[in-house]
Design goal:
The chain is an alpha/beta fold and 503 residues long. It is built from 19 helices and eight strands. The chain folds into two domains: 279 residues, Cytochrome Bc1 Complex, Chain C (Up-down Bundle); 212 residues, Alpha-Beta Plaits. It starts with a helix and ends with a helix. The structure holds protoporphyrin IX containing FE and iron/sulfur cluster (2 copies).
Length: 503
Amino acid sequence: MLSALAAGLHRVEGLFDRAFEARFNPWYQLGALGFFFFWVATVSGVYLFIFFDTAIVGAFESVERITHEQWYLGGVMRSLHRYASGAMVVTVTLHLIREFVLGRFRGVRWFSWLSGVPLLWLLFAAGIGGYWLVWDRLAQFIAVATSEWIDWLPMFGDTLARNFLTDRSVSDRLFSLLVYLHIAIPLFLLIGMFIHVKRMKLARTTPARRLLYGTLAALVVLSIVRPAVSAGPADLSTTVAIVELDWLYLNTYPLLDSLGAGEVWGLLVSITTLLAVVPWLFPGEQSIEAAPAVVNPANCNGCGWCFKDCPYEAITMTPHSYKPELRQAVVDPDLCTACGICEGSCPSATPFRNVAELVSGIEMPAFPLDRLRLETERALAASNVPVVFVFGCERAFAVTGIESTDVRCLSLPCIGMLPPSFADYVARQDRVAGVLVTGCPPADCYFRKGSEWTEQRFKGDRMPHLRTLAGKSKVRVLWAAAHEGEVLERVLRTMRTAREDAA
Ligand code: HEM
Ligand code: SF4
Ligand code: SF4
């Protein structure tokens, strides 16, 4: 079922790729957009706080002044605060759905998934609290409904609701507590967001610059065209009958009416529990493919390249187990996602070594280096005419589908697993007219950094890189997502034509 959903998702993302280019496709940076909207809400929130009257009698008036007297700045800030908070709900929800559909909650990724769940509660608590502070008719509605909702919990009795029965009984102290909570909850959210990305090296917490500016400009335009305004002032001597709800944050409130407080608590706790156990509910197949990387101390010289490249902080460097002057890589199996990117980092991972069985410093049990060499040679030997050789990635465009007598292909679990020396090795064969290295666009690498590191390695900006003249002249790197077959085939055609012209 997940693979059908993933195919649908890729189709939608493909449309955005065409409109935005993969680098700026918002689908590939939903987490980063979540961070961005958080910062917009924080900056605008700090501005609003300067002019906000934290006493209940002055709160409504102060928001009105900010909105109307200072419409060109305060008003825009208020709207930015509201719209950025709403956009955060949208992006975080899509982020959750995307990670689920792509199965990026399984195995050691349980931590990223589970640490995301409490963020949802904090996000909604922060947003709902914000509506409360305006102290207009909507705030009154929320205040009364939330108090009754919280009072359902046995430890509260009806103490909160009593506070909202009359204007006089709503104390300044309670209102100040709400203001304090509206600062404290986003602070906890921020701490939670940093814990959430802690296990990921160089987590992408800022969207691509053009996407960032475009999104900010859209928020500003929306704020000017459709400024956020208050409903009339709260008046607890009357009951609020009709209010215009923000369906992003306040979607549970209609349910309170139709289901009741206890039932809504039950529903929310059930959804949260269900979300929290997703990694164990859908564990996927436990195959050798998921086995963590293994270090072979005899072939590890302690260079630290794998340590630098591991996108999941799974590698540490320790004193070598028996060569006192060297360091050695050590893999924590509880953090390793079996991406294989470290196999592509190791300087000992070269097919030019003249050994019966090729073993490098760090390898994947499912796809050790010797298998990589054997499969490369097998693919080469399958044809005796000049060929273009393609190294691809199982999660990107399926290169094995374009294999023919003059196009030989090898698909890897992640293109980051490919040591550049293998491209050198293939390029040096006389029969090979060109080598194409392809995989998911860097912004959408399933293992986060596989394509980005590959691009840098082949450009010579990251170790290891191409070493032979043949490699430097014949190898080409081109990114093609699963739906971008025609781009790849077009380039292949030009490589084949160049080969025929040269012949
Ligand atoms: C405030 C809300 C959230 C923010 C700001 C946020 C942000 C991020 C960021 C920046 C990343 C790293 C992206 C990268 O560099 O590859 C990430 C990864 C991830 N997030 Fe979230 N996230 C949030 C909520 C959630 C929620 C609610 C879930 C699911 C329950 C979730 C699940 C994940 C998973 C599974 C990954 C790991 C992907 C991987 O291993 O490659 N996140 N998130
Ligand atoms: S396989 Fe990937 S996650 Fe595991 S140690 Fe190697 S680079 Fe890190
Ligand atoms: S890249 Fe290879 S040689 Fe370098 S530290 Fe890692 S395992 Fe050892």
